[in-house]
């Protein structure tokens, strides 16, 4: 084994069998992969009933918890042919055990790559057949009350989906707000880069909102929109007269059957301003990339009176104290953007 070179990527090979799991951590220097660390253990207890997919993800989470000092100091690239691992890392929200695993991995810089040659994967497969340790159960506790609240039984929470669509010249926009009973929100804006009518844009917003709710594992949903035509056509009260809307109505009805409970109501436009603003933003904004991230910051004082002198207070420490004690001057909305993991302060970006 060799010490890793600072600033260079670490490569992780994973192996899982019905009786053991094991990672192999290497670093490529001058075209040669040098072994940095290896660890393995037996699979026991409830883990023996895991599916092959869960067992492979278990190997990744076990590695991150045991070698977290490497994961925090280096970018990690996983060499894997296992699509479920990519799925675990790419999903914005999951449920149950997999949700806790995803939150455990959120603080690390992890990417996936498809193996081009066998290299060290054969060695990892061989060493996994001779586990070096007995069963070491995963640490189920996660740091931070916010993470625990998000992972706690998300499929039984009741959500409200507010949607709105806007049509422009040659394009359109869709705005979506998903909100829990406790007030937690998810804001989504889409640019419809194709010609569409106002009614088609409204249907697009509803369909995209249902897909977003489905991907987040939501089971109980209340839908609210300001388009009386879309609401009443979905309820079956209005007849469908425009043939172009038939595929949209069919898609909405199929998606609504996925949820355990779903209802749809009409709300006045005055109560649907946030989704309307998101839809307008999507329709009016032009950008070359497939995805654009926009962060909106609420200002409580005019910028003209801002004090630009060097701060004398240790502001990270004051934020940590306010997070732990609740005593401080930072507004709750701004404080929610920070979280403490392993005694370090992190700021949450627009994507969580």
From TrEMBL:
Source taxon at top rank: Eukaryota
Family annotation (InterPro entries): DNA/RNA_pol_sf, RNaseH-like_sf, RNaseH_domain, RNaseH_sf, RT_RNaseH
Keyword Transmembrane: no
PROSITE patterns xref list: RNASE_H_1
Keyword annotations from UniProtKB, A to Z: Endonuclease, Hydrolase, Nuclease, Nucleotidyltransferase, RNA-directed DNA polymerase, Transferase
Residue ranges of domain RNase H type-1 in the record: 155-284
MF (Gene Ontology): nucleic acid binding; RNA-directed DNA polymerase activity; RNA-DNA hybrid ribonuclease activity
CDD domains: RNase_HI_like (cd09279)
Pfam family of the protein (one): RT_RNaseH
Name of the featured protein: RNase H type-1 domain-containing protein
Organism of provenance: Rhododendron griersonianum
């Amino acid at each position: 084994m060799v010490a890793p070179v600072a600033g260079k990527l670490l490569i992780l090979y994973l192996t899982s069998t019905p009786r053991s799991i094991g990672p192999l951590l290497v670093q490529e220097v001058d075209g040669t992969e040098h072994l940095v660390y290896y660890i393995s253990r037996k699979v026991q207890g409830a883990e023996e009933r895991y599916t092959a997919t869960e067992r492979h993800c278990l190997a990744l989470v076990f590695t991150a918890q045991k070698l977290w000092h490497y994961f925090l100091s280096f970018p990690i690239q996983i060499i894997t042919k296992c699509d479920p691992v990519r799925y675990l890392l790419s999903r914005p929200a999951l449920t149950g055990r997999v949700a806790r695993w995803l939150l455990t991995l959120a603080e690390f810089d992890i990417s996936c790559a498809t193996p081009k040659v066998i290299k060290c994967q054969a060695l990892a497969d061989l060493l996994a057949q001779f586990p070096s340790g007995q069963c070491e159960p995963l640490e189920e506790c996660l740091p931070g009350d916010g993470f625990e609240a998000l992972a706690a039984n998300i499929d039984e929470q009741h959500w409200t989906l507010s949607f709105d669509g806007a049509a422009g010249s040659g394009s359109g926009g869709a705005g979506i707000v998903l909100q829990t009973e406790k007030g937690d929100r998810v804001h989504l804006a889409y640019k419809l880069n194709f010609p569409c009518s106002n009614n088609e844009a409204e249907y697009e917003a509803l369909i995209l909102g249902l897909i977003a709710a489905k991907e987040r594992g939501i089971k109980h949903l209340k839908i609210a929109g300001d388009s009386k035509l879309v609401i009443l056509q979905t309820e079956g009260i209005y007849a469908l007269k425009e043939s172009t809307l038939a595929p949209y109505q069919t898609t909405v009805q199929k998606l609504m059957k996925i949820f355990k409970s779903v209802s749809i109501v009409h709300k006045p436009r005055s109560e649907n301003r946030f989704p309307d603003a998101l839809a307008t933003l999507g329709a009016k904004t032009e950008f070359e990339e497939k995805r654009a991230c926009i962060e909106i910051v609420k200002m409580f004082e005019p910028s003209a009176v801002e004090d630009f002198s060097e701060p004398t207070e240790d502001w990270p420490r004051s934020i940590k104290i306010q997070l732990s004690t609740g005593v401080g001057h930072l507004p709750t909305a701004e404080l929610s953007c920070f979280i403490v993991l392993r005694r370090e302060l992190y700021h949450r970006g627009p994507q969580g």
